[in-house]
Write a structure and sequence with these properties.
The complex is a heterodimer of chains A (192) and B (543). By secondary structure, chain A is of the alpha+beta class. Chain A has two domains: 59 residues, no CATH class; 79 residues, 3-Layer(aba) Sandwich (Glutaredoxin). Helix content of chain A is 49%, strand content 10%. A five-stranded mixed β-sheet of chain A has the order 2-3-1-4-5, with helices on one face. In chain A, helix 2 packs antiparallel against helix 3, helix 4 crosses helix 5 and helix 7 runs parallel beside helix 8. Chain A starts with a helix and ends with a helix. Chain B folds into four domains: 100 residues, Glutaredoxin (3-Layer(aba) Sandwich), CATH 3.40.30; 203 residues, Rossmann fold; 84 residues, Ubiquitin-like (UB roll) (Roll); 85 residues, de novo design (two linked rop proteins) (Up-down Bundle). Chain B is built from 23 helices and 14 strands. Chain B has a five-stranded mixed β-sheet with strand order 2-1-3-4-5, covered by helices on one side. Chain B has a five-stranded mixed β-sheet with strand order 11-10-14-12-13. Chain B has a four-stranded parallel β-sheet with strand order 8-7-6-9, sandwiched between helices. The mean pLDDT of chain B is 94. Classes of the chains: A alpha+beta (192), B alpha/beta (543). At the A-B interface, helix 3, helix 5, helix 6 and strand 5 of A face helix 2, strand 10, strand 14 and helix 18 of B.
Chain lengths: 192, 543
């Protein structure tokens, strides 16, 4: 009787420990839980997590979180999107869907310098298309692309609201007024 | 916070002012021409020339005359302000020296120029006058008084009545009566209601809302708070484009300051009224200017529109009744509450009341922001205020309403600017972008430019818009490449009609407008590019 009891107990204990062991192991599909560290040990993930915590991991804050992520990493790679998806408990499809819907988010790494030509109507009628054409010819890339040496990304914007000083070009975040094709090339040349 | 405290802040602030005020325009346009360095140099020069007892250098928002920027205005020396134009950081010393009577060679603007003289300022009254980063400056010009009056002397229904009486119509472009919208939200049952301020100014060629947010952020916050009281809401969202970082940072400062003084938050002016505002940053999608798409974006989703009804007033953000108004609509509210709906209704035309801010850009001498009474003839804006086309060219057409609007040819320049008249010409009021084109502009290229924009910005939810805009762009490219025939043009017109009538939201419904209006007025430019019809074997010509 007692023997049988012992063996039952042993069996139970081994079962229990087996269950406990599996629970301790990292789950195959990452659990949507707070506090998952990113295996790379990159500190930026920690900063992003703190930011999400500040927003109380609210699902409707997804766009704010992606803004922060892009600010930290420069672009949104799959790893970052998955990290956000786990923490906000949103399906990856939803996070990816939002990241690809909005023009402001980029899923490709940018070059060392960015040159954004405004293509709003006011800039367009004042010759922004000629600025883009000149830059395309000079850097041998199309808008949305980065040069092979990773120095320059050429982008176009819908309208940056600087219509009074058209055509406007944003060099590394600084808006410059009334740019001619020569102005733009001179500025970009100084980066190369 | 009570009204006495508010008055005390205003009095203290006015008393601390110095005799001469040097105002430096620090909005996005002038900032790109190193306005921050100009301000720093001006401050340095004031100290160096030992004028700091009498002179203060003030950061202000947009002064309006962006094409002449960077601008520096001086009050307190002459009767009228002195306006320095095209200033560089190294000119700072000369400007300060001129206060002591020294001669300068700097460019001085004329304050009586029609660009300024023909304006009636309500929304932009404080733009270029107050420091947008100091709440005391706003309080000193009577800020937050309207909110106090509404909360303590008026019932919510009275506020709605006053807005209805003013005849204010939505400044986002469609022109829906604001009072009617407020009344609907106020009557909608629901414990939780939301206020949304639409600052997703996506029209290329428009920057009115950016300038209001950058120059006078408290005006918008106060308007939102009054709206919240009127409809019974306690939470607002301000949706701003990510392309406007300066506007976002000034709004953040403004919200923080208003909260610190108890002008936002709980128990405002010691009444049971609570109101909080959160900023939501857009991420670059033109379609998010559409109200249902904007709400999706506030909820952190893809900004795709949905069919209406249900209208946001009944079921909007998170399924609750929601009031959505444009930045400029909210910016009109304080003036309406302070001076009364009847006063506001006295400005403008029979059906379009009040003033409208326009961004005057393109091939025109004087570019910048203007605020004019509704009903002003287009000619006065373009030829007198704007000074006509530069380099001796002729004005060919004026584009209003961005990608949803149309091109108005020069022969219709005498049209009064109001919602109905512009609609009659096949254009719309829109949010206020006014791009002037001269006789060197190719109208087919302009139509293609807008179509390309709409194609890029189509959210892809409904097929007429997604596929239609792409096909229309292909046809326009074919015409420009001189490969199209009359049949292609007929197909383009047919597609315009189809996309206009079958798209889900405003973006698709109005996407053909630039093509339709250029076809209406500049058809010859299309026809010149057409090739004779060629028919394969067995095909006969259409009759």
């Amino acid at each position: 009787m007692s023997l049988a009891n012992t063996s039952l107990l042993q069996l139970l204990t081994s079962y229990m420990s087996a269950i406990l062991n599996t629970a301790e192991k990292p789950p195959v599909t990452p659990k949507p839980a707070v506090g998952i560290k990113h295996p790379s040990g990159d500190k930026r993930f920690k900063i992003l997590e703190v930011h999400m915590k500040k927003l109380q991991f609210k699902q409707d804050a997804l766009i704010e979180v992606l803004h922060k992520a892009q600010e930290l990493f420069g672009y949104l790679e799959d790893d970052v999107l998955l990290f956000v998806s786990h923490h906000l408990k949103l399906p990856p499809s939803r996070v990816y869907g939002v990241a690809t819907f909005y023009h402001f988010f980029t899923l490709k790494p940018q070059g060392e310098h960015t040159c954004v030509v405004c293509m709003g109507t006011a800039c367009y009628v004042k010759g922004a298309d000629k600025v883009v054409a000149a830059l395309e010819k000079f850097a041998k890339i199309k808008p949305g692309e980065t040069t092979a040496d990773n120095k320059l990304s050429l982008l176009t914007a819908r309208c940056i609201g600087a219509c009074g000083i058209a055509p406007a070009v944003t060099y590394d975040g600084q808006v410059a007024a009334k740019q001619s094709p020569d102005d733009a090339i001179a500025k970009v040349k100084s980066w190369m | 916070m009570q009204i006495e405290d508010l008055n005390a802040i205003a009095e203290k602030h006015i008393a601390s002012r110095k005799k001469i005020i040097v105002r430096t325009c620090m909005s996005a346009g002038c900032m790109s021409s190193r306005a921050d360095a100009i301000k720093a140099n001006l401050e340095k020069a004031v100290i160096e020339q030992q004028l700091d007892a009498d002179v203060e250098v003030r950061r202000v928002g947009c002064m309006g005359f962006c094409g002449q920027g960077p601008l520096v205005g001086i009050d307190g020396v002459k009767e009228k302000e002195i306006l320095f134009e095209h200033i560089k950081p190294e000119d700072a010393e000369a400007i300060i020296a001129s206060l002591k009577g020294m001669q300068t060679n700097l460019e001085i603007g004329d304050p009586d120029h029609p660009f300024f003289a023909k304006q009636t300022k309500i929304v932009r009254a404080n733009g270029g006058i107050i420091d947008p980063e100091k709440i005391e400056d706003y309080i000193a010009v009577g800020g937050y008084e309207a909110l106090h009056n509404a909360l303590t002397e008026m019932q919510p229904a009275q506020v709605v009545d006053e807005v209805t009486k003013s005849g204010l119509r939505g400044r986002g472009g469609a022109g829906f009566p604001t009072g009617l919208k407020w009344g609907t939200v106020a009557k909608s049952p629901g414990a939780k209601k939301y206020i949304i301020c639409n600052g997703d100014e996506g029209d290329p060629g428009a920057f009115m809302d950016r300038s209001v947010l950058e120059s006078d952020p408290h005006l918008v916050l106060e308007g939102m708070a009054i709206a919240a009281y009127a409809v019974g809401s306690d939470q607002g969202f301000l949706y701003v484009r990510a392309e406007y970082p300066l506007a976002i940072s000034r709004l953040q400062i403004a919200i923080k300051q208003a909260k610190a003084l108890g002008l936002l938050g709980s128990g405002i002016f010691e009444t049971p009224f609570n109101f909080n505002v959160d900023i939501r940053i857009g991420a670059g999608a033109f379609v998010c200017g559409e109200e249902t798409a904007l709400m999706m974006s506030v909820e952190g989703k893809r900004g795709t529109p949905r069919p209406r009804p249900p209208f946001p007033a009944e079921s909007g953000l998170f399924g609750c009744p929601t009031l959505i108004n444009n930045v400029e609509s909210f910016a009109n509210i304080t003036a309406i509450i302070k001076k009364g709906g009847d006063w506001y209704a006295g400005i403008g035309t029979e059906k379009s009341k009040g003033t409208k801010v326009f961004a005057l850009t393109g091939k025109i001498k004087n570019t910048g922001l203007i605020e004019v009474p509704m009903g002003i003839p287009l000619r006065q804006i373009v030829m007198e205020m704007g000074g006509g086309a530069p380099d001796g060219r002729q004005v060919k057409s004026v584009q209003t309403g961005g990608p949803s609007g149309g091109c108005i040819p020069a022969e219709f320049l005498d049209t009064p600017v109001d919602y109905e008249s512009l609609m009659k010409l096949g254009s719309i009021m829109g949010s206020g972008g006014m791009v002037v084109m001269d006789d060197t502009t190719n109208m087919v290229e302009i139509a293609k430019f807008y179509m390309e924009f709409c194609k890029d910005e189509s959210c892809g939810k409904c097929i007429p818009c997604r596929a239609g805009t792409t096909q229309m762009e292909n046809l326009l490219n074919k015409i420009i490449a001189r490969q199209a025939t009359r049949r292609d043009l007929a197909k383009l017109e047919e597609l315009c009609d189809m996309v206009k009538n079958t798209s889900l939201c405003g973006l698709g419904q109005t996407a053909p407008n630039p093509v339709l209006s250029t076809l209406k007025y500049f058809r010859n430019e299309y026809e010149e590019l057409l090739q004779p019809d060629t028919f394969g074997p067995g095909v006969t010509a259409m009759k």
